[in-house]
Specification:
The protein has 24 helices and 26 strands. It has 702 residues and is an alpha+beta fold. A hairpin with a 4-residue loop joins strand 2 and strand 3.
Length: 702
């Protein structure tokens, strides 16, 4: 997949045309033009052919490979090129209007043509050039075509100043649009400031400053006070308060110490890193897999995954323009034939006014920019949305289904009780369980091993002769010739054990030796700080919450009661979670259902939901890849925030649609009735486009 930066593309409609043209190249695949980010992605190696098509659609534009330039990391210039030229043209036009009566007198008539035609050609050359090239290639009914036939028609009927004025104001409007678009792009590109420039790599020869992409997993890096954490990792030495605002949007500093995980993009606050102000981090993920890279990649790629609204208006604009041209043609030709006393000049002028008003720029540019603003705002708050369609879906959510462990709880298990029964001691139960779980990556298994090491630091666990892990249930092993079973209620019931009633709010791991019940271990998990607040906010928004868990009924009931979740399903295997999710979804076919999870076992359920959330800080790679939306800081409160951002985005987009269509219908009606001039038409067209862009940009400023 090749990636290019698009230069001097300020027209959303042109971006769509570039995508369509490139898609028709034989052998070109996966073509995606992201207008808001000025990025082109394509599976095709002929850069000259790509450049030719881009420049054919938009004269004066160009492309450059992102890998060969630093443009990706620089914000666009605040002022697009052409201000000096526009100023000169405007002064020339104003002078022509001031001395219009003199220029129109018989001896100076050619002076009027010279002044106004010069202003017209200087301001409209690119428009005229594009229109001619498109017509020669059989492509008409775009903005350039509309402006060309409108202004040329005005010249033919003798409205020279209006033809020049329309083209000048159109150019000024395009310039102002460029300013607004650049401002929006620069707001998004401000996220790139969190990209670390270097990493302090620990080597045998001392600390070496290197590019973060050169650091490998397992390496050690040093972060001094005031520096950005360049890669995801774990604190190996030192402690600090880290500023996480760039990742989460929250200004509350986060204290970390040895053993804690950190994410790329956090900043070591000056004066907090122990006595030396330095922390040492063991790198746990490569640069491309780091939190910061995920954010930047998702911000840039998300707009390429278009919502139904965007796709509808892309198709709408394709048919809208030829329909309007046809209507204008009827207005210009029919009344003079059908109504006595009507002149062609009057009705042609009215038709030209309608053509100016009808340009679909406001819709074509403001809708994708609105979604881009919503996605950018979510990213700035640590919520990675993988496509604008998911923002639409979030506006219709009626049920949020949470996984328990690692999502509502911290997923950090601790052994709180060990019980020996039937002649087995607590030590026997702990040793057998730890030996059976020695190779497991399950959080409960790790907590048992950690507790064993604390209780018996000098003891060595016997190595199992065989191990069989049963997903969602536990482990069966042979240790020292003894058949060991360590697992949950379901596994023991499947093995025909009759269990005593273990009333506990924690997770219970039962242990059996040679088909005799030996005892159990109780493991507790701490609820996340914002879990209760998240559930309450969702209820206040009219959204129901449900919890699914593989834990026992006592543990599930205790957590749901503390959080205020009214409905939960416990003791579920991974495939059963999908079944229960589908049952929940079928109960409300009109609304959307969200699933929020973090573990590798949650990936299938995340995929099945209408919108799948994954916890990106501690969540598994499988869950993050499967998710539609990723929460960087594992905070369940971000689910409600994502819904709010989606609703605000939807509101802004529909404000633009209704406003743009309403104004255009109003002025088209005035134009057909002869009550609107070309001056009003161009102000209506470009003014609506500019206001729609500024309205969309509000999302980024909030």
């Amino acid at each position: 997949m090749q990636k290019y930066r698009l230069k001097n593309i300020t027209c959303a409609s042109c971006a769509t045309k570039i995508e369509n043209e490139l898609s028709q190249i034989p052998g070109a695949k996966n073509v995606s033009v992201n207008f808001a980010a000025s990025v082109l992605k394509i599976d095709y190696n002929n850069i000259e052919e790509i450049r030719r098509i881009v420049q054919k659609v938009e004269p004066g534009s160009d492309i450059e490979a992102v890998e060969s330039s630093n443009s990706e990391e620089k914000a666009s210039s605040a002022f697009p090129k052409g201000l000096g030229k526009l100023t000169f043209i405007s002064v020339l036009f104003i002078a022509g209007m001031i001395f219009r009566d003199s220029l129109n007198s018989t001896p100076y008539t050619m002076g009027a043509y010279l002044v106004f035609l010069t202003a017209y050609l200087l301001s409209g050359w690119n428009v005229l050039n594009t229109a001619v090239k498109n017509i020669l290639h059989g492509k008409i009914f775009d903005e350039s075509f509309l402006m060309t036939i409108t202004t040329v028609g005005a010249i033919i009927i003798g409205e020279l100043p209006e033809a020049a004025g329309v083209m000048i104001f159109y150019s000024i409007g395009e310039y102002l649009q460029s300013l607004a678009v650049n401002k929006s792009r620069n707001t998004i590109k401000a996220l790139l400031e969190i990209r670390p420039d270097y990493a302090n790599l620990k080597t045998r020869d001392g600390i070496k400053k290197v590019n973060p992409s050169e650091v490998m997993t397992g390496d050690y890096i040093v972060v001094r006070a005031g520096e950005k954490v360049p890669l995801d990792g774990e604190i190996a030495e030192g402690s600090a308060y880290l500023n996480t605002f760039m990742l989460t949007g929250e200004h509350v500093p986060r204290y970390v110490e040895t053993g804690d995980g950190v994410l790329a993009g956090m900043i070591n606050s000056p004066g907090t890193g122990g006595d030396s102000g330095i922390i040492t981090i063991k790198v746990t993920a490569s640069y491309n897999d780091s939190a910061i890279s995920r954010i930047l990649e998702q911000v840039e790629n998300a707009s390429a995954r278009k919502s139904k609204t965007e796709m509808f208006f892309t198709v709408f604009a394709r048919y809208y323009t030829p329909v309007v041209v046809s209507v204008a043609a009827f207005i210009a030709l029919l009344p003079p034939f059908l109504v006595s006393g009507q002149t062609f000049g009057d009705w042609v002028y009215r038709a030209l006014v309608i053509l100016v008003i009808s340009c679909p720029c406001a819709l074509v540019i403001s809708i994708p920019l609105g979604y881009f603003g919503g996605i950018g705002r979510a990213s700035a708050r640590g919520i990675m949305v993988k496509g604008s369609g998911y923002l639409d879906s979030l506006t219709k959510v009626r049920t949020v289904v949470f996984d328990k462990t690692g999502t509502l709880t911290k997923g950090v298990f601790k052994v709180v009780q060990v019980a020996g029964l039937n002649g087995y001691s607590e030590k026997d139960v702990l040793i057998y369980a730890a030996s059976a779980e020695v190779h497991s990556n399950h959080p409960a298994a790790k907590s048992i091993l950690e507790h064993y090491k604390q209780e018996f630091p000098e003891s060595v666990l016997p190595e199992p002769e065989s191990i069989r892990e049963i997903p969602g249930q536990g482990i069966k092993a042979v240790i020292g010739g003894n058949a060991i079973i360590a697992g949950n209620d379901k596994l023991l019931h499947n093995e025909k054990f009759s269990l005593s009633n273990t009333e506990t709010a924690g997770t219970v791991v039962h242990v059996a030796v040679n088909f005799e019940y030996a005892g159990y271990i109780v493991i507790s998990d701490e609820i996340k700080m914002n879990s209760s607040k998240a559930v309450k906010q969702l209820y206040n928004m009219g959204i129901d919450t449900v919890m699914l868990t593989g834990d026992n009924n006592n543990s599930a009931e205790a957590v749901s009661a503390r959080l205020g979740i009214k409905k939960f399903y416990q003791g579920l295997l991974p495939h059963e979670k999908i079944e229960y999710l589908e049952r929940i979804m079928s109960e409300d076919s009109k609304g959307k259902t969200v699933f929020v999870g973090d573990g590798i076992n949650d990936a299938p359920v995340i995929t099945r939901a209408d919108v799948g959330f994954a916890m990106g800080g501690l969540g598994s790679d499988a869950a993050i890849e499967a998710a539609d939306i990723v929460i960087m800081e594992d905070d369940p409160l971000k689910v409600a925030e994502a819904v709010n951002i989606a609703k605000e985005t939807r509101t802004v987009i529909w404000q633009n649609i209704i406003f743009a269509m309403g104004v255009k219908v109003f002025f088209i009606t005035l134009g057909a009735a002869g009550k609107a001039t070309m001056w009003e038409a161009v102000f209506a067209d470009m003014g609506v486009a500019l206001l729609a862009i500024l309205n969309a940009a509000r999302l980024l400023r909030r």
